[in-house]
TrEMBL record:
This is UMP-CMP kinase. GO terms for molecular function: ATP binding; CMP kinase activity; dCMP kinase activity; UMP kinase activity. It comes from Oryza meridionalis. The chain holds residues 22 to 211 of 250 of the full protein. Binds 1 Mg(2+) ion per monomer. It is found in: Cytoplasm; Nucleus. Coiled coil: none annotated. The lineage of its organism: Eukaryota, Viridiplantae, Streptophyta, Embryophyta, Tracheophyta.
Length: 190
């Protein structure tokens, strides 16, 4: 309905920084709907179509899919959820993603939550994860790191300049990280 406030928080961090893990805890505590850009793409990649194959290939190389496609998937998931509070996990990954989101969705995020974690720790976590993800091999992990540093860091700087960055130290244990995350989300409604 018109006038109804929609709350959106972007959650970003390098590969294996703990975005999905922290989002699951935010959902439980604060009633958000978790939209993982990577999970939405992995669902699409299952289709044996030209688009499915294209997504699979890009993800296996650690590259980014087109902004229009990922924004379309996010928009669809938002409409279907029935909720008015969303965590957008793993997006926007570059400036083009951010522009596409702004042009199509028109809802300003409250802030960008950045889970800051060292490369060594992220690599260790991903190699231990064992969830059968095709992109969890050392070659693709390195490419994902490079994309993060070259394309995603500028997005983080953009929100920092606007005073809309919330950064947590992701190198600690899950519950320690969540203590800081909780304090950030607790401020949302005041
Ligand atoms: N773990 C988590 N937190 C821990 C902690 N504090 N201490 C110890 N262990 C911790 O965590 C990773 C592992 O570490 C897990 O085993 C967890 O138990 C443990 P997880 O929460 O899964 O980390 P996350 O940051 O979600 O890692 P993920 O691998 O999902 O991040 P990526 O950013 O690499 O993956 P994503 O799924 O977002 O994207 C995959 C690909 O999709 C991209 O490479 C790209 O090709 C494509 N993509 C796009 O093209 N466009 C988009 O907009 C989004 C994705
Ligand atoms: Mg994830």
């Amino acid at each position: 309905p018109p006038g109804k406030k929609i709350t959106i928080v972007f959650v970003i961090g390098g590969p294996g920084s703990g975005k999905g893990t922290q989002c699951a805890k935010i959902v439980k505590q604060f009633g958000f709907t978790h939209l993982s850009a990577g999970d939405l793409l992995r669902e699409e990649a299952k289709y044996d179509t030209e688009q499915g194959t294209m997504i699979k290939n890009l993800m296996n190389e650690g590259k980014l899919v087109s902004s229009d496609l990922i924004v379309k998937l996010l928009f669809k998931a938002m409409r279907e959820s029935g909720n008015d509070k969303f965590l957008v996990d793993g997006f926007p990954r570059n400036e083009e993603n951010r522009h596409a989101y702004e042009n199509i969705i028109h809802i300003e995020p409250e802030f960008l939550l950045f889970i800051d974690c060292s490369k060594e720790e992220m690599e260790r976590r991903i190699l231990n994860r064992n969830q059968g993800r095709d992109d969890d091999n050392i070659d693709t992990i390195r490419r994902r790191f490079d994309v993060f540093q070259q394309q995603t860091l500028p997005v983080i700087q953009y929100y920092e300049k606007r005073g809309e960055l919330r950064k947590v130290d992701g190198n600690r244990q899950v519950d320690e990280v969540f203590e800081d995350v909780k304090a950030i989300f607790a401020q949302l409604n005041n």
